Amino acid sequence: MTALVVGLSHRSAPIALLERLAVDSDGATKLIEDVLANPHVSEATVVATCNRLEIYAAVDRFHGSVEDISGRLLEPAGESVEALSPHLYVHYDDGAVSHLFQVAAGLDSMAVGEVQVLGQTREALSRGQELGSVGPVLNTLFQQALRVGKRAHAETGIDRAAPTLVSAALDRAAEDLRGRRVVVVGAGGMAALAVATVVRRGAGEVVVLNRTAERAQRLATEYAVRSAPLTSLDSEVAAADVVVACAGASGLLVSRQAVAAAEQPLALVDLALPHDIDPGVADLPGVTLVALADLGEDLRGSEVGVEVDAVRRIVTDEVEAFLSARRRAGMTPTVVALRSMATGVVESELARLERRLPDLDPATRAELLHTLRRVADKLVHQPTIRAKELGDRAAVSYATALAELFALDPDAVDAVTRPVVSEESATELPRPPSAHLTEEGP
Length: 442
Prior knowledge:
By secondary structure, the chain is an alpha/beta fold. Helix content is 52%, strand content 13%. The chain is built from 17 helices and 10 strands. It has helices spanning 15-21, 25-36, 63-74, 81-84, 94-105, 116-131, 136-155, 161-173, 189-200, 213-222, 233-238, 256-260, 296-299, 303-356, 362-390, 398-405, 410-417, and strands at 2-9, 41-49, 52-59, 89-92, 182-185, 206-210, 226-229, 242-245, 266-270, 287-291. The strands form 2 sheets. The protein has a 6-stranded parallel sheet with strand order 7-6-5-8-9-10. Strands 2-3-1-4 form a 4-stranded antiparallel sheet. The longest helix is centred in the C-terminal third of the chain and has 54 residues, at 303-356. The radius of gyration is 32 Å and the shape is elongated. The protein starts with a strand and ends in a 25-residue tail after the last helix.
């Protein structure tokens, strides 16, 4: 069984689609049950957040699983899978491991470094355990992902990445926010950080707008500011001093026309991917636009940039360690089989000797058994060590595997495996004695 991830997030799909596919706890349970109905799926769970919906499954066949899982994931949207499939991403085997570790560490979040996703990952594991839909494959994967996420937050300052990003953007856009009218577009993690930052900096009036009015109201209430429907965005922008957009919606929310009609000067901060604000507004007089791309030099080499790089290194190391341990574990059955074969040969040959020498005394029998076992142990010792080493490498040819497995002398191996053909015998090689067979056998 191999891990498979099929999902969509703020990086791949418009917010409108994510909202149509959003599931609550009961919906997640139903989705897991539907996925398990596939005969090629043995385990399944769901990671569901406001910006992400992912199905994790243990499957025995990729093509027999991915199409079905994709269809079940997209079915509530009411459109064809073909039309919506460009918004999906699929990770399989090693890629699934890497993706989940990045998610748990906060590297794939809209607000990089946010810790909430770690709790949502834990919730996905707990849900699967309660339903009995998580087995050895996903349990091991998620347990390790949680450990990676905890390590990332414990050993680095990744938690400061998103707040520093917001602060750096506002520093570029407006020197002083005291008494200024600020419009925040969005209601996710980044928007919450933006609202908290502008309130702390003494902004006059703060307005939160979002496609889902309830979420905008919830965020506005938390910080004692005002919310407004997204339909009033143009009028709110027209009266604003600063606009911070971090909805990450499909298409542009803040148009050039709306900005052109606004009072000047106007500072705009676009923290969304894809863009929420038309990049063309930068050409308008009296308008300052700061986008994520503009912050690269500010953050690169900074403390935050260093912390993000540190988390990436942790994730890379943890992925390799996990895959290496899995490869070594995969060699265990081979090692056990090798030793079992050696033990079987010893027992078989000793029984054969006893039939030929029925008067063999117990002391001699015990000594023979001890000697045979020592010979067998010495013969399989090196192959066992080599098998464990090979389990941590990429696939090799059978010839190379045999040479490595038995620690053969390279020159001896070449001498045995490389045919020596003279010019006189090049047309027809003599058959070795063992190759002279009749139709019935040797």
